[in-house]
Amino acid sequence: MKRITRDQACKYAFDWRDQPLLHVECGETFEVETLDAGSGFFKTAADKAIPAKRPGFDRSPPLSNPIAGPICVEGVQPGDTLVVTIEQIEVADYSWTAIGPGRGPLGDSVQWNELSGDYTTLIMRHVPGPSGTTCDGTLRFNNRLSWPITPFIGTLGVQPDRIVPTSIDGQGPWGGNLDIRDTAPGNQILLPVYHEGARLYLGDVHASQGDTEFTGTAAETSATVRLSVDRIAGQRRAYQRIIKPDSIICVQIARPMEAAVRAATIQMMDWLVADYGFSQSDAYCFVGTCPHFRINVYQMCDIGGLNFVVGAEVPKRYL
């Protein structure tokens, strides 16, 4: 099986000038080993998120959030849609999260002075599950709390049309650092294609994450990701879509939050009309009345140039 190894997973931009690290065919399964968002810096609780001590933080923007790629998918052309099927994610034996002065929405808080007074790194151990791997394992938050590992790819995207955004805060209809918990095993991610071969990048795997990723850092970890790719020829939607076994999702990225919610809802209405036989009136009334229509708030970090990321979700039983 073709593979990108972890020592190769160290790009920090979605750069159309990069040469492919891997060539794959449509339908082919391959693996990518990823680094964590801290590029391997955080190993123990003594490793604090002090910018002056972190490699790459003397650069602007910092060299953080490494990604692997690009991956060239043979036969894929501009104007197509790339279909990425995530088959499996096996995370490392630990994950980390870090807080401190100036980090996240409470990093300068007077009321929450414990958060802004010192740097704290939390190392969370991963216990293998019934399979003998961390694919179905448990995350130990501390001696009292634990939960199932629910891994997903935090940064996934193709090379955008012309710009070269960083991997730490680059976002757009082509993907990027979106931290969508539904970019997970068993789901398909649909991305618009701008370059021959699509030129896919991925990295920034999380072992788990709460809605909004409020602190700006989730359970960051390295991982081995198994995935396959395909194409929808001659069709390119404006934004990313996700197909789960039981639902469909339209993703939107914007500030303020209500702009993202509005756009995601309208994109979902368009999908219902174009592919599922809804009239415009029915689609409009449906999103206002169906109790199972959901707006997922994936990323709401007030950090750097990041926008807010939401997903409008409809169960397939209504389609």
Write structural notes for this entry.
- Helix content is 11%, strand content 34%.
- It is mainly beta.
- The protein has a domain at 3-76 and 85-175 and 190-232: Jelly Rolls (Sandwich).
- It has a nine-stranded mixed β-sheet with strand order 1-3-15-5-13-16-17-19-18. A six-stranded mixed β-sheet has the order 2-4-14-10-12-11, with no helix packed on it. It has a four-stranded antiparallel β-sheet with strand order 6-7-8-9, with no helix packed on it.
- α2 (257-276) packs across α3.
- The model has no long low-confidence stretch (mean pLDDT 94).
Could you name the key traits of this structure?
six-stranded mixed sheet; mainly beta; 34% strand; 319 residues
By CATH, the topology of the domain at 3-76 and 85-175 and 190-232 is: Jelly Rolls
CA distance, first residue to last residue: 37 Å
Portion in helices = 10-25%
CATH 2nd-level architecture of the domain at 3-76 and 85-175 and 190-232: Sandwich
Give the integer mean of the pLDDT values.
94
Basic shape: globular
Number of DSSP-assigned strands:
19
**Could you say which structural class the secondary elements and strand pairing correspond to?**
mainly beta
Number of helices: 3
**What is the CATH homologous superfamily assignment of the domain at 3-76 and 85-175 and 190-232?**
Acetamidase/Formamidase-like domains
* Secondary-structure element pattern, one letter each: EEEEEEHEEEEEEEEEEEHHEE
For the largest beta-sheet, the strand count, sense and barrel status come to: 9 strands, mixed
Q: Show unreliable segments.
A: none
CATH class of the domain at 3-76 and 85-175 and 190-232: Mainly Beta
Approximately what portion of the residues adopt beta-strand conformation?
A: 25-35%
Q: Largest sheet, order of strands side by side? A: 1-3-15-5-13-16-17-19-18
Round the Cα radius of gyration to an integer and report it. Answer: 19 Å
